[in-house]
Task: inverse folding
């Protein structure tokens, strides 16, 4: 279940994103930028994914120009493959739909295994900006 993250959760969430994205960043010649993460945190809607009383993931939504973007969706390594990312994604879509918005957008590395997850949940490719692709899910 998603719950609003507090300021004290920022370091934990940042470490999760940094660790989960380390291989992709290395592959694409990028460096982790803690200042960028802090700025994104400050400008976004931050949620923890909780299961069995503990934090097992992190999700951030960003609203820009009247649209909502899924900026981060991370699950701790030992809890992947259990449907937690799917649950978080469906809850994020419900949040955005509840605001009356018609779509949720995101960017993801084109070579990320997450692309399959997003496609299974109705996201289609809108643009290709290597190494990223932009995707959108229309919300009924």
Result:
């Amino acid at each position: 279940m998603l719950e609003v993250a507090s300021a004290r959760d920022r370091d934990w969430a940042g470490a999760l994103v940094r660790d989960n994205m380390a291989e992709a960043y290395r592959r694409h010649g990028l460096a982790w930028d803690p200042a960028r993460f802090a700025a994104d945190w400050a400008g976004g809607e931050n949620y923890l994914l909780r299961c069995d009383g503990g934090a097992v993931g992190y999700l951030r939504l960003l609203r820009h120009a009247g649209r909502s973007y899924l900026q981060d969706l991370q699950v701790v390594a030992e809890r992947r493959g259990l449907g937690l990312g799917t649950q978080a994604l469906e809850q994020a879509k419900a949040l955005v739909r509840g605001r009356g918005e018609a779509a949720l957008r995101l960017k993801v590395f084109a070579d990320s295994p997450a692309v399959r997850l997003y496609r299974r949940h109705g996201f289609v490719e809108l643009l290709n900006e290597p190494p990223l692709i932009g995707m959108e899910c229309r919300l009924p």
In short: The beta strands are 2-4, 45-51, 54-64, 67-75, 103-109, 124-129, 132-138. The two ends are 22 Å apart (CA to CA).
